[in-house]
Amino acid sequence: MCRPTDPLSIVSTRILNGSEPLRLVVRNDDGSWQFLCGTPVDVDHLLTTHAHHLFDELPDDLRPLAGLPVGHLAERYGPGFPWRIEPYEEE
């Protein structure tokens, strides 16, 4: 069930269909999220959803990122690798 206070997020369809792993999570300054595979972004491969759907359905190693501070990103080489968290400045 969607909660009206949940920020909208974008997610790569390549992650959802399993053709690419989740490698990059961004928490934007407005509280919205980006869940990306780390390859060049094509708007045709992006969907909008609520972040809680992704935290509920993506791998368990994503759950610790639910507390990612606004203005930060988490990046990794691929599944099984540790997340590297750092500040992020929107362009």
Explain this structure:
By secondary structure, the protein is an alpha+beta fold. The protein contains two helices and six strands. The chain has one domain (8-78). 12% of the residues lie in helices and 29% in strands. It is globular, with a radius of gyration of 12 Å.
Number of helices: 2
Shape: globular
Strand content: 25-35%
- Please tell me how large the radius of gyration is: 12 Å
Outline the low-pLDDT stretches: none
Span between termini = 33 Å
Number of spatially distinct domains: 1
Main sheet: strand order = 4-1-3-2-5-6
Topology summary:
Layout: E1 8-12, H1 13-16, E2 24-27, E3 33-36, E4 46-50, H2 51-57, E5 72-75, E6 84-87
Parallel strand pairs: 1-3
Antiparallel strand pairs: 1-4, 2-3, 2-5, 5-6
Brief rundown of the structure:
This protein has 91 residues and is α+β, with helices and mostly antiparallel strands. 12% of the residues lie in helices and 29% in strands.
